[in-house]
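Folds vary. Our protein:
___
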Amino acid sequence: MDRTEESAEGAGPFTTRLTWHLSDGATAVWESRPARKRGLLTVRAVSESEPLSRSADSESVGRLRRLNTIASGAFTVGGGLFAAGAAVAQFGTGDATSAWIYFAGGLFFNTGGYASLLQAVNAPRRDSGIGALAAKRWRWWSYEPGRIDWLSTFLLFVGTLVFGINLLSSLLQGLSVQQENRLIWAPDLVGCILFLVSGHLALAEVCHGRPGIRPRDLGWWIVAVNQLGSVLFMGSALADFTRPATGSVLNIDIANWGTLTGALCFSVGGVLQSFERP
């Protein structure tokens, strides 16, 4: 069937929304996040005054629902464990206990990050001719840096792996100040930067390159809450630097409270994400 593309919107080189005419006169609108998260495409028929959401095939919907459940649950639990680890570090028995709690939380963040990447890899692709979304074969990996959703989730997943270096190093005993900064603080800082860039791309995706507040858009709330968590994580990382001259942390209270509140943001984002499903 013939179709004529009407407009493309996005951020920089990335396309986040496409609008085109179908041969029967209807208008179809593809948006990156709704297609990836909910398997939805919007179609306005000639005779209809209101647009209708057209779901992807049942195979795609089932994939997206399962991956969304894994990702949302993992970030909810992982955020809760990180908050608990920060609370133990601030009020509890010491660094050893909090380090193991952080490590457990990091495993959940790894799982949530990879599940989010799989959502992008296996998102249903648009069939422009008929105004529908169709499933592709299941893949465990792809390389698609030209897609903003893939790049955002890829950086998120890599960020969780870099945090893993930080968390593993935190379990080591007898490190010097230089080793702590190199093996614990530096990966923490790099992971925070990756989270911030990932969140910026996610905001650009949901806002189609135009920064703004969208209080009625659940996807915007999820991205905004997670980005706030990334900012708090960054503040925590900066405050956790150990001075080589004195061996003392810049500000341990800011480091712990930044981690605690940032982790709660990711936990809240995970709960909200459980409602963003097909």
Notes: Strands lie at 4-11, 14-21, 27-31, 40-44, 52-55, 125-127, 132-134. Residues 58-273 form one domain. Residues 79 and 202 are 19 Å apart (CA to CA).
